[in-house]
Amino acid sequence: MPDPAMLELSEVTKEYRVGGQTVRALDAISLRIEPGEFTSIIGPSGSGKSTLLHLLGALDTPDAGSILFQGTEIGGMDDERQSEFRRHRVGFIFQFFNLLPTLSAWENVAIPKLLDGTGLRKAEPRALELLDRVGLSDRARHRPAELSGGQMQRVAVARAMIMDPPLILADEPTGNLDSKTGASILELLGEIAGSGNSVVMVTHDMGAVTYCDRVITLRDGKIGSNEAAERSVSA
């Protein structure tokens, strides 16, 4: 029997009420994402990209359909189980980094461990190890104001990995970076996927998709295309 997909969605629908009207953000979406796959989700504003990412990370629940994570249904989890899932199974990377300005780089990386009950000093070795992995061992004691945009995003990538989650969700991770710095972040995400994690990235940057294994296009809440891609760089 084949191994379960990292994520498998079947007929997933999500609606919102906006100004007295019902808007169908996702319309019977079905897709499969494999372990170790770097997937990009592209489409115009309002196409449903962010809604899909929120559902994959259990930040929201679908109105209809099924979302399986490694064979287990997550679409209907209660708040407590959703919170547990987000802490241990998913790492989030955001466009605006979301770093705490009063903490050093390694302390920002360690935050998920602290929220899970691990002491700061006990979390430090793993945080430093991850900063070394993303090329920032020499900036571990620096605060965000002392880092460039690319360095801050690398801290955010390390933070997303601190709980060793099998799934990384990235929301416009290169949106605030210049093209060269953005390319280095995309290469890093490709390396993470190459080590067995699944990485799902929402992006407006068409150049970013050349770093991915699969490109999913959304339009008006429906999948327009779902195609394998050949990476332009080696992981």
UniProtKB/TrEMBL annotation:
Keyword Transport annotated: yes
Domain ABC transporter, first and last residues per copy: 7-235
Alphabetical keyword list: ATP-binding, Nucleotide-binding, Transport
GO molecular function: ATP binding
Keyword ATP-binding among UniProt keywords: yes
Pfam families: ABC_tran
InterPro entries: AAA+_ATPase (IPR003593), ABC_transporter-like_ATP-bd (IPR003439), ABC_transporter-like_CS (IPR017871), ABC_transpr_LolD-like (IPR015854), MacB-like_ATP-bd (IPR017911), P-loop_NTPase (IPR027417)
SMART domains: AAA (SM00382)
Entry similarity comment: Belongs to the ABC transporter superfamily.
Name this polypeptide is given: ABC transporter ATP-binding protein
Species, as recorded: Nocardia suismassiliense
Taxonomic classification: Bacteria, Bacillati, Actinomycetota, Actinomycetes, Mycobacteriales
